[in-house]
Amino acid sequence: MLRKRAAIVAEPADALAERVVADGEVASAPPASPTESDAAVPPPPPATLARRAVAPDEASPRTLPDRLHPISHLVARAEEEWDDMLRRQSQTLEQAVAEYRRRYKMNPPVGFDSWWRYAMQNRVILVDEYDQVHSDVLPFLSLPPSEFRRRVMSLSTDQSLPWFKQSFQLKVRDGAVTAGQGAGDAAERRDAVLDLLAEFSEMLPDLEARMSKGDEPMVVVSGEARERHERLARDGKLLGTSPAFEIAEPSGFTPWDSLCPPNSTARRIAQALPVDTPRGNTLQSFVSIEHVQAMDLCEHPEVRDLNGFTAWSGPRPYLLYPLFSFTKTSLHADLLLPSVSGDFFAEIGRDPVWEQKKQNRVLWRGETMGTYHSKGSGWRQSQRARLVALANAKDGDTTFHLADSTSDALRLVTAPTLDVSHHYFDVAYTGVPKQCSAKDTTCKQLQHEMRFDKWLSADEENKFKYVLDVDANYASGKFKRLMSSRSLVFKSTIFPEWWSKRIMPWYHYVPIQSDYSDLTDTAAFFIGAPDGTGSHDALAKRIAQQGKKWSEDHFREADMAAYTFRLLLEYARLLHREDDDLQSMDYKP
User: Fold this and answer.
1) Percent helix, strand, coil in the chain (nearest 5)?
2) In which band, very low, low, confident or very high, does the pLDDT at 17 lie, cut at 50, 70 and 90?
3) Cβ–Cβ under 8 Å, residues 222 and 258
4) Torsion angle in degrees (nearest 10) through CA of 488, 492, 494, 497
5) In whole angstroms, what is the distance from residue 424 CA to residue 157 CA?
6) How far is CA 440 from CA 313, 370, 444, in A?
7) Rounded to the nearest 5°, which phi and psi values hold at 323?
8) What is the percentage of the chain residues whose pLDDT exceeds 70?
9) Count of H helices and E strands in the chain?
10) Residue 494 lies in a domain
């Protein structure tokens, strides 16, 4: 089994380049020093994600010909998939309608032709890639139109709803967009939404909608209810009038588990039923090109304990309400909107070309966010605390893989953890501890245990070839700026976003598992050993360039507007279709 961090006697500082063992062999660790035992020097939080908790088509060295590094396989596959995605995009309205029908087994909504014209006028390239919109809308298609309208009205009138005070009303009338009730204390978000909708509002049907003020997703329904909603919707059928089954909470499960499908991995584990687990894989696994699948918290429930947002028992299921939110997880049923926050417009800064980026390490800087830090809160297992601890670990040895410079075959390397940390990472908190309890001294504990360093400007960050993006309290707001730079972006997250199915991991950015168990191996693949052997610098440069171009071509305001336009057309169909004619709001050329 791959040994990540054994507390053993430290070797000389140059051991990183020396302790190379034969391909396929696993180096055994020397015995622990009696004065530096595991008990005396506790290691940083371990990578706890089970081997099963990776995307279904994971790449493992044992499954590849000639034992090539799995990242090489993933990069090659990503290139093929991205080229295929671009090649298959519709070129005419007629093709787009046919593709919509092929994917979703239904007609597009009224206004689809106006949306197409907008997309063409604004040079939207991925005109068919709106699966996230469909998956968000699908459960609501099972609601009788009159019941859907009743729930829309309740969102703006029923103060007993848990999200009433955390949302605001938006109206479109005769092409004019206004923000109404509840928008007063959400001025920045309100204005951003109004500005985005102004691009196409004159082509929208009249509608009323409720939108979240903050970033937190809020709509949750039981796994049984969601499964039934989706099954009926796919069959073109409607629910009865009683919502009793929707609010029935399945017994014997934690609230989070109750939100998962009945046959999901989370439910099966909770019932001590067998789950699919890969066997014979003792080498490192990486996130596949299906990064969104790796974010599925019902198929990978171990991840929930590794992120402050989900590291608790969870909310109890409720009715399905059409609330628009700017962040969601796989456990939530909110309608996902692009987030046009201030970070979207952040300056890229002075950005050297790849060869002039002098820092050949992985950079991360951020505040102590992602959880509330207090005694008993388990904050050390939250995403940012684990990252800072891992990247600044000092004790024992670390075993990881390098790729051979000529053949790309795997080599197993064991070196002092301190050397590994210094060679591959520059990771630290910035500022002073926040979101922590001063009363129980956790703030002081954070300051003492964790590395804090100065805040870096965009100019300074751009000196690094590699930058890491991880979740804050919710999804990170830095991704757009990072992707717009010439640096290669590593990203770890549990939050799928509007663009997540419109980008190609390993072609535009590097996905990292939530437990960071692949972080050192991934950094080593690109950066190589201190003497330069095993590096893939040219490949890293190419992926960084491809990512920057993706940001320029597919992460524009126009792309977010086209996404929102299409989502609101789907919403308008739900809002205005007739009880006795469910196709009354379908687009019929």
Assistant:
1) 35, 15, 50
2) very low
3) yes
4) -10
5) 54
6) 23, 19, 9
7) -100, 130
8) 86
9) 19, 15
10) yes
Q: Could you say which DSSP state residue 462 is in?
A: T
- The reply to whether 477 falls in a domain is yes
DSSP collapsed to 3 states, 329-389? CCCCCCEECCCCCHHHHCCCCCCCCHHHCCEEEEEEEECCCCCCECCCCCHHHCHHHHHHH
Does 116 fall in a domain? no
CA atoms within 13 A on the CB side of 437: 11
Letter for the amino acid at 164?
Answer: F
Domain count, the chain: 1
| Interacting residues of 344 by C-beta distance below 8 A, sequence separation 6+ | 477, 480
Q: Does the pLDDT at position 63 exceed 70?
A: no
Q: Which of 481, 488, 480 is nearest to 464 (CA)?
A: 488
Mean pLDDT within 380-401: 97
Please indicate, yes or no, if residue 21 is contained in any of the structural domains: yes
Q: Which amino acid, residue 382?
A: S
Q: Which amino acid is at 454?
A: K
By the 10 Å C-beta count (0-12 exposed, 13-18 middle, 19+ buried), 538 is classed as: exposed
Q: Which residue segment(s) compose the domain that 395 sits in?
A: 5-37+64-78+356-557
Q: In terms of Cα–Cα distance, which of 154, 148, 320 is closest to 227? A: 320
d(CA 328, CA 267): 21
Of residues 247 and 201, the one with the higher pLDDT is: 201
| Residue 31, pLDDT above cutoff 60 | no
174-198 confidence digits (pLDDT tens): 999 999 867 676 888 899 999 999 9
CB 130 within 8 A of CB 338: no
Distance of alpha carbon 369 from alpha carbon 384, whole angstroms? 7
Give the model confidence (pLDDT) of 124-159 as tens digits. Answer: 999 999 999 999 999 999 999 999 999 999 999 999
